[in-house]
Amino acid sequence: MAAQERSIAEKLASYAVNLRYEDLPKEVTHAAKRIILDTIGCAIGGHDSGPSRIAMKLASQVSATPSASVMCSAIKTSVDLAVFANGVMIRYLDFNDGFISTGSGHPSDTLAALLSPAEVAGRSGRDLITGLVLTYEVFCKIMDVLESRSLGLDHSTIIGLAGAVGAGRLSGLTEQQLVHAIGITLGGNVALNQGRTGTLSNWKNYASAEASRKAVFSIQLAASGMTGPSQVFEGRNGFFNVVSHKPFTLPTLGEPFGIMRAFTKRFPLGQYSQTVAQAAVELQPKVGDASEIAEINLHVSPTAIRVMADAPDKWRPRTHETADHSMPYSAGVALMYGTIDEKYYEPPYLQDERLLDLVGRVKCIPSDEAERVKDEMNLCDLEVVLKSGQRHSTRVEYHRGHPKNPMTDGEMEQKFRSLASRHLPAARVDALAQRIWALEDLPKAAELVELTRTG
């Protein structure tokens, strides 16, 4: 009798416990360091936001043994609450990386699930790199075959799964314990995409942080002997039958590594606005005075419109979260100011009638061509019509930061420094950048979190 094929949870667990840093290609480990630099910069930049303050306050009310550190503070708390607070900081600015395939999301959200377990377990920089490559493999390869958005499934569901696999590796779980942790995580934590439609609340920033918090708690349970549901994907009431409504085959884990297909962001906006903002910034010098603009026509994919121009609120956003997930608002900001900055997504700009009048002239036009290539690029054809009748247009296929138009290491560090230097002294920013670029030589990954302290 033929041996029964291993379940997806078993395949993921086996890959996780057997992956070695020494087996990773240099370009993969370098990509991981670039992402860690970028993601920590985003966390520092977002640590003083309202949502981050809420998460930090909750974390500060709990003491635990063992304890873990909350970034940008002196707070020591339970491992799961540290993961949550760090995850909110990472996500707040919507400036961390993205990934688009059959499904999409932000795999660098998983760094929150790795930093605290790495700290508690005393893991090295090499361990952290390996853990991050692992979480990207899980997230990207599953997103290659899971049509998450059409299912109404939030990407944080897979962030939690990936975080559990990576955190389990760093926590030293056995293969069988990791199978149980995967079952606990996925079996109990399926998230809805409603938090990313219409008027966006703080939950847009909290969803992945919460998924990571639950993932780490699942790891703690499994490490203590708790068992989880078996066949969590394949079973009668498993993920395939209840959530995805059809099975998928897990792609080959490893080369080519998914981390090489993630993109970084030039602008603090949702991923479908990256090409829109770049096109508008390029056209702004030709347009000149924004008051002379009669029409702004965005030819983009219907998928992008459903995500970032799906409701009237995207033309008159009332929250930071809605504004940074609005193609019309971002086009208006770039054409009025010639650049994108986080401050334009907060009051008083959200109530600026001159800006909102310009945003009101934006039309989002479905493009069949853009839809055909949506899994590879966010194609944007932008046309600006002036009151004089003059027209200016430009096309952006691969935004700066896309794997086919990558940011240089220098650009990545410049972005990191622009965020970190607002809150940390210059010497600390230098030290943090140096540690990350040489992360493979760092004995304790926890030093990265320590260096983010703003006090």
Number of strands: 8
**Which term fits the overall shape?**
globular
The neighbouring-strand order within the major sheet is 6-5-7-8
Quaternary form: single chain
Helix content, binned percent: 40-55%
Number of helices: 19
Main pleated-sheet profile: 4 strands, mixed
Q: Which CATH first-tier class of the largest domain would you pick?
A: Mainly Alpha
How large, in whole angstroms, is the Cα Rg? 22 Å
Low-confidence stretches: none
CATH architecture label name of the largest domain? Orthogonal Bundle
Strand content: 5-15%
Whole-number average pLDDT?
94
CATH topology (fold) name of the largest domain? 2-methylcitrate dehydratase PrpD
Distance between the termini: 64 Å
Tally of individual domains: 2
**Helix/strand-derived class?**
alpha+beta
Description:
The protein folds into 2 domains: 254 residues, 2-methylcitrate dehydratase PrpD, CATH 1.10.4100; 126 residues, 2-methylcitrate dehydratase PrpD (60s Ribosomal Protein L30, Chain: A), CATH 3.30.1330. It is 49% helix and 7% strand. The protein has 19 helices and 8 strands. Helix 3 runs antiparallel to helix 4, helix 6 runs antiparallel to helix 7 and helix 14 crosses helix 15. The chain is globular, with a radius of gyration of 22 Å.
